[in-house]
């Protein structure tokens, strides 16, 4: 309050002083330009200058305010669009997680231009379009994603390769992945997708070449990598014996053996691959070469299926093969598969009586149609028809297992005429 009072007094004294000066001497001011002259008192000129100053100051302030208002309007408009895009993106992602593909594609694509991260919108919208089977829209959205964020070319390319793979466009997916691999050779996901494409293309040579990269970059868990190796080399072993019809069994055996020996050393000790190798040897008639492989497998890890197979094949020395199987008997004397194998090997060595004993012991432990058939065949060829019938009657349930309970005629009953 005191400050206002002091200012008023100052203005009053200043006004009084100026008024006296104006009365004493009004002054004179002349402006001339060409033929034009302007005359006025000094005090009028000073008042005009002050008035012009305030008018100019007010005009500048008004102009600045208008600029700020326009900027604020643009900021408000941009902020509003951003909020709307954020809300639509959120709703679109929720729709995507709920499987509402049409709604998700529409919301995400419409809000992409004003979204903070348009790449996410376009990629998610492309996924929704793909789920609807709209391949054209999916491809267009992927192109927009690439254009919106050029530095995310690898991410967009991976999405494109996955989309092509889902459509069954294996060659296109492979071309995309090979291009990505040149740009990002250490990207583990690209390598994993390449593995999947090669397997679906049955390109086992390419899978074989990719395995070291999978291992080096730790792209797969150890157990998954082992499964890939096993599958790959199983297929390569199978392909090695696909030769012209004119090829002999020996040529097939050599081709199979070459592929087997060219495998990494640790894989030749793999039980899964060794079993597959022996089965292929048996299939092409190279049983003599399969016998030592099966023998070694059984020594490393007992397996009833392999024991059964060991009795089906003929090795180079049938007697030695029988002695080897007898050696296993002390560890598992009641194993039905081993007893069946011993029966077959005894029969191969023409030890008929011993073969019958082993077959009967196997049937006692586990009645099976396979064992019964072996015993019945041997007894029939030995002329033991009565014993064969008795064995068949005793183990009839093995042949007719699973039959319903039905009334049966008495022994010797006659068939009534129709």
UniProtKB/TrEMBL annotation:
InterPro entries, A to Z: Heme_biosyn_assoc_TPR_pro, HemY_N, TPR-like_helical_dom_sf, TPR_rpt
Q: Does the keyword Transferase apply?
A: no
Membrane-topology annotation of the record: Multi-pass membrane protein
Q: Where are the transmembrane segments?
A: 42-64
Originating species? Amphritea atlantica
Could you tell me which Pfam families the record lists for this protein?
HemY_N
The record's function comment reads: Involved in a late step of protoheme IX synthesis.
Output the superkingdom of the source species: Bacteria
Entry keywords, A to Z: Cell inner membrane, Cell membrane, Membrane, Plasmid, Porphyrin biosynthesis, TPR repeat, Transmembrane, Transmembrane helix
At which residues are the TPR repeats? 336-369
**Pathway(s) it belongs to:** Porphyrin-containing compound metabolism; protoheme biosynthesis
List residues of the HemY N-terminal domain: 27-133
As for subcellular location, the record says: Cell inner membrane
Specify the protein name.
Heme biosynthesis protein HemY
């Amino acid at each position: 309050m005191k400050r206002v009072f002091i200012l008023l007094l100052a203005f009053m004294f200043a006004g009084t002083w100026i008024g006296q000066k104006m009365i004493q001497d009004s002054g004179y001011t002349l402006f001339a330009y060409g033929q034009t002259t302007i005359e006025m008192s000094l005090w009028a000129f000073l008042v005009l200058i002050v008035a012009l100053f305030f008018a100019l100051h007010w005009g500048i302030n008004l102009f600045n305010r208008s600029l700020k208002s326009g900027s604020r309007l643009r900021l408000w408009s941009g902020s509003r669009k951003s909020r709307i895009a954020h809300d639509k993106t959120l709703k679109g992602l929720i729709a995507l997680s709920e499987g509402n593909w049409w709604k998700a594609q529409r919301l995400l694509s419409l809000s992409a231009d004003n979204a903070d991260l348009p790449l996410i919108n376009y990629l998610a919208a492309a996924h929704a379009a793909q789920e609807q089977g709209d391949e054209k829209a999916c491809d267009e959205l992927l192109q927009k994603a690439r254009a919106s964020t050029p530095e995310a070319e690898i991410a967009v390319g991976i999405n494109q390769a996955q989309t092509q793979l889902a459509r069954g466009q294996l060659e296109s997916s492979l071309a995309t992945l090979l291009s990505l691999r040149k740009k990002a050779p250490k990207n583990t996901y690209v390598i994993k997708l390449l593995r999947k494409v090669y397997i679906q293309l049955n390109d086992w040579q390419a899978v074989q070449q990719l395995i070291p990269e999978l291992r080096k970059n730790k792209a797969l868990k150890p157990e998954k990598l082992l499964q890939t190796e096993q599958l790959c080399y199983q297929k390569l072993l199978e392909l090695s014996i696909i030769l012209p019809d004119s090829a002999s069994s020996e040529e097939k055996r050599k081709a199979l053996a070459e592929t087997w020996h060219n495998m990494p050393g640790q894989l030749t000790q793999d039980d899964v691959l060794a079993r597959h190798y022996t089965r292929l040897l048996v299939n092409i008639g190279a049983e003599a070469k399969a016998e030592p492989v099966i023998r070694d497998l059984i020594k490393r890890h007992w397996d009833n299926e392999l024991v059964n197979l060991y009795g089906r094949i003929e090795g180079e020395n049938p007697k030695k093969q029988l002695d080897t199987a007898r050696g296993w008997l002390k560890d598992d004397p009641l194993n039905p598969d081993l007893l069946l194998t011993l029966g077959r090997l005894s029969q191969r060595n023409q030890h008929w009586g011993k073969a019958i004993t082993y077959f009967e012991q196997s049937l006692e432990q586990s009645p099976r149609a396979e064992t019964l058939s072996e015993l019945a065949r041997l007894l029939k060829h030995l002329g033991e028809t009565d014993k064969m019938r008795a064995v068949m009657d005793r183990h009839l349930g093995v042949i007719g297992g699973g039959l319903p309970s039905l009334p049966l005629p008495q022994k010797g009953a006659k068939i009534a005429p129709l």
